[in-house]
Every structure is written in structure tokens, then in C-alpha cells.
Amino acid sequence: LIGDILDIIQRLCSLSLSHQSEIKLSDNRIEHIESNCFSKMPQLKIIRLDGNKLSSLNNSFSGLNNLNLIDLSANNFKDLKPEYFKNTKLNELNFDHNKIRVIEHN
Predict the structure, then answer these.
(1) DSSP string of 1-51?
(2) Quick one: which of 19, 60, 66, 106 has the fewest CB in 10 Å?
(3) Phi and psi dihedrals of 47, rounded to 5?
(4) Residue 105: which residues within 8 A CB-CB, separation 6 or more?
């Protein structure tokens, strides 16, 4: 991705990509993803956000009922919260190479 990463992510989140099944945003400098960012992409099955600078998520994946893989490896996460993945049916969640210290339970 070229240009201002924040601007690119905001534009991506505003797009209606109703048939998109996979999105790869690996190895960028992404630090934040807005709540419900991917809500206009209901068919997403795979999201790859590995190799960024994310440290938290705010309902970014809410409503993605078809989502079965999220790769968040090699970011800056220190905790893992169930609300990050509310209303998803994940088969695979990759948090490798983060500094997870706390895993919260419901």
C-alpha cells in the first residue's frame, strides 16, 4: 500500500465489497482499525492483518458471520479479549509473535 495508511484504511472501510471473500493487509504500518470496519464485506472468510502495529481491536469484525480465519500474528497485542471476535464463527485465529500476557474470558 502506498500513501497514508490511515487514509487508505478509512477508504477501505467505507467501500461496499459485498462479494469479497479475502482481504490481505499484511506487512503495513496499520495501528488502528475502526469499529465495524469490515461490516460492508459480509462474505469475508479470511482477513490477514499480520505484520502490522495493531495493539487492540474495537468490534472490527462484528457481524462477519462467514469469517473463519483471522491472522493477527506479528503485531503489538498484549491481551486477547473475547469481544474482539463477538458474533464470528472462527476456525482459526493466529496471534503468533505478539506479547500476549492476558487472555480474558467471558
Answers:
(1) --S-HHHHHHHHHH---TT--EEE--SS------TTTTTT-TT--EEE-TT
(2) 106
(3) -125, 125
(4) 82
Residue 6, number of CB atoms within 10 A of its CB: 13
| Whether the Cβ atoms of residue 43 and residue 20 lie closer than 8 Å to each other | yes
For the record, the C-alpha cell of 70 comes out as 483471522
Cβ neighbourhood burial of 71 (10 Å; 0-12, 13-18, 19+): buried
Which residues is 103 bridged to in the sheet?
80
CB–CB of 80/58 below 8 Å? no
pLDDT at 4 over 60: no
